[in-house]
Write a structure and sequence with these properties.
Strand order of the largest sheet: 1-4-5-2
Order of helices and strands: EEHEEEEHEE
Number of strands: 8
Number of helices: 2
Oligomer: single chain
Helix content: 25-40%
Structural class: alpha+beta
Distance between the termini: 67 Å
Largest sheet: 4 strands, mixed
Shape: elongated
């Protein structure tokens, strides 16, 4: 059974995923070391805790991974703008006045 702690009463060596990430760490595949039970909008929910001593440093993405993320994020933003009725050419001055890569 997973130990359960009241709100703000967990031992100092146990952290949430967000707290680990803020410290530059990741859970590293370890099992859940504890949980905090709380109520939100009338529903019972849990926050899981991980041991800092078993955590590992975050992995550093390669330049190719970062470039792929930038490209995917840009495409996501452009599609969101199109859903709101804004043409892509408003964001990309190189493509302004072009249709399918051909000058109009």
């Amino acid at each position: 059974m997973i130990p359960e702690y009241p709100w703000r009463c967990a031992p100092r060596h146990l952290r949430t995923r967000r707290q680990l990430a803020a410290d530059g760490l990741r859970p590293n595949g370890q099992d859940i070391a504890g949980r905090i039970r709380y109520r939100r909008w009338g529903r019972q929910q849990f926050t899981y805790l991980y041991d800092v001593e078993l955590a590992a440093p975050k992995r550093v993405p390669s330049p190719a991974q970062l470039a792929a993320l930038r490209k995917a994020t840009r495409e996501h933003q452009l599609r969101a703008a199109e859903r709101h009725g804004i043409d892509r050419s408003a964001f990309d001055p190189d493509r302004a006045g072009r249709v399918d890569g051909v000058a109009a």
